[in-house]
Amino acid sequence: MKERLEALRAEALQELQGVAGPQQLNDLRVKYLGKKGALTEILRGMGSLSAEERPVIGQVGNEVRAAIEEVIETKQAAYQQAETENRLRAETIDVTLPGKKLAAGAVHPLNKVAQEIEDAFLGMGYTIAEGPEVETDFFNFEALNLPKDHPARDMQDSFYVTDEILMRTHTSPVQVRTMKAMNGKPVKVICPGKVYRRDDDDATHSFQFNQIEGLVIGPNIRMSDLKGTLLQFVQLMFGKQAQIRLRPSFFPFTEPSAEVDVTCVQCGGHGCRMCKHTGWLEILGCGMVHPRVLEMGGYDPNEVSGFAFGMGVERIALLKYGIDDIRHFYTNDLRFLSQFVRM
User: Fold this and answer.
1) I need a labelling partner for 173 at 20 to 30 A (CA). Which of 2, 99, 248, 279 fits?
2) More confident residue, 69 or 213
3) How many CB atoms lie within 10 A of CB 60?
4) Cα–Cα distance, 224 to 11 (Å, whole number)
């Protein structure tokens, strides 16, 4: 049996020297070392050996197995190394080649307009104040002269969490919070942010939109100050040729109140389809702060006065860029948004 094992080793080593590839190497491994291989077949005959011969033959069998496995492992490592080198050569990336140019993005038109509005008022000495989008009934309505039974609440019907908590319908609650935080000191702020109202989606309305409101409080604040401020803002946004007009209106939190129109950006005030041939486009609402709102905010209406205004960012963007449907801002259509990269 020992001679058979020696002969098997010599035969296996000689055949392994002439192996041509990984597949043939694996076939020879199975042929000599597999469960049904030649070495296993010889060692099955150890049962007929004497107790003295079994250790000797077992040792020889282990030596034969180790010699064959060593050659197989060496050749297998060489094949794997060669395969790795071939793959590296085939998959080499030329880092000197110019890369693919990624398309540059742009600021969303609503964010762009909001930033322009903020910059205009920051240049006039205003500061920015922000507040929570989930508000209490007190800050959203009652502190703004809108008690629970006030019919004007119907115009700002919103999404209620409870009877006393709702998604804010305007950024005016930030004005109230600012007044209370200032403890009777002068105020000059703008309040940007998202607001929510139960509106049906159409070309000019959305249940969520962006709003920027302004508030100024101090001694001897007059309606003429409000008009001058809004005229300067409009000319910064739409050009020096832009003019405004104030029309009497009603808001519970201001008195007197006014709607503000700007000369049509399309026709310059001569009349066209965009302005329905009036020459004017409605842009925002404003007014002098109601005495009760001043009192609720911690101010004495006999000592100070103030004005407030509010505008929808989407409304300004529609007018500024001549867009006819507010929904374009929310559909993420690159054909629409890519137009603003050049602006």
Assistant:
1) 248
2) 213
3) 18
4) 111
